[in-house]
Amino acid sequence: MKSKMQLLKNMRHMHRAGMAIAVIILGSLQWAPDIAVGKALHAEKKAPVDAAWRDGYAGDAACAGCHKDQVASYSHTAHYSTSAIAGSNSIAGSLRNESNVLMIVRPETTSENPGLFFKMEARNDGAYQTAVAGWPGQYQTKTARMDIVVGSGVRGQSYLSWQGDELYELPVSYWTDGHQWINSPGYKDGSMDFSRAVVPRCLECHSTYIHQLSANPLSNRYDKASLVVGITCEKCHGPGKAHIALESAAKPSAAPAAGVGILNPAKFPRDRQVDLCALCHNGLRGEELAPAFSFVAGQSLDKYLQPNSGEIAEKPSVHGNQVGLLKKSRCYLSSPGMSCSTCHDIHAPEKEAASYSSRCLTCHLASSCGMFKTGGVKIAENCVDCHMPVEQTDAVVSETVGRAIQPKMRSHWIRVYR
């Protein structure tokens, strides 16, 4: 049987290659008293307003000058908050004592197995995750700051940390269902690992822009100052600086020069409208045909990402192919004008599922439904739960303390399930 010292030695190698763990041996572990959520968290660090990311982009504040209502409404959507600078208003999980610990293996002096737990806490310069492994009096720790929040919190959040100009996913995520800390999907349960690199394609769908420092599509090196968090107006409408200058002129031109006008996805052909959503709601497509952040609204996505091949999985995932499932639906195939925006108002927060029934009833009669005889007219209040059910995914799983935690999402394959 291995000695405790040998097990401690082995734990130094429980992380992935390329990310060395700084080990601190403590005589005893004492947590600092709970900070009233540190000063830095109240200050709310923000991405630089003048971040040099793409020439011609103006930022949401400039859009609000003329589109105040749309910008105000959109700021409450999950798209807008799909990433944020870490702070007290953006971190959904508790940083307060007793509810800020993820216990994997309880450390006990008499146990042959080393303990392992993670603590999420506020300090004066930000929020941190600390992994603690070993036995009382023989602890090893590793700490990293929570710099970026990824996820709106509808289902959960993960957290990213800068190590120089390299960006890594932290090992602990927050799960909204049950209000609990869990192992981040992709990390091995029971490991003291902080080494999962964040590649450009992840950030392409969880931010508006960041400048890559390497042409390697798997590199996690970025210009930190260039980060524009969230999905902002210009992600879908294109650069706005020239448009704003034109509209602000003393005599605006009735016919702006090519490339000056703002992009309006509502005027795109249906395939291009759907491609814009499919950039991030298309499942995990194949080979990249162009670098991350090079896709522009109105382009064909097939020129940017290899189309999916083979049969589309029926069960959705966090990275599910909602667009692919929608395209299999009879509703979509029979309705040339149907697109994502038929049901979704991108500028407004999502509504209760039942509210979408009104869209169904523009084409379908409640009396034609097979459940009408038993359910009566009341079935017209909720078409969605029967024809677009919420299903558990097997594609994205968090293994936490031997338990599989799996997200649930609504299927976009509209059909009869009973």
From TrEMBL:
User: Which InterPro entries does UniProt cross-reference here?
Assistant: Cyt_c-552/4, Multihaem_cyt_sf, Multiheme_Cytochr_ET
Alphabetic keyword roster: Signal
Highest taxon above the source species: Bacteria
Q: Where is the Cytochrome c-552/4 domain?
A: 198-238
Q: Name one Pfam family in it.
A: Cytochrome_C554
Protein name listed in UniProt: Cytochrome c-552/4 domain-containing protein
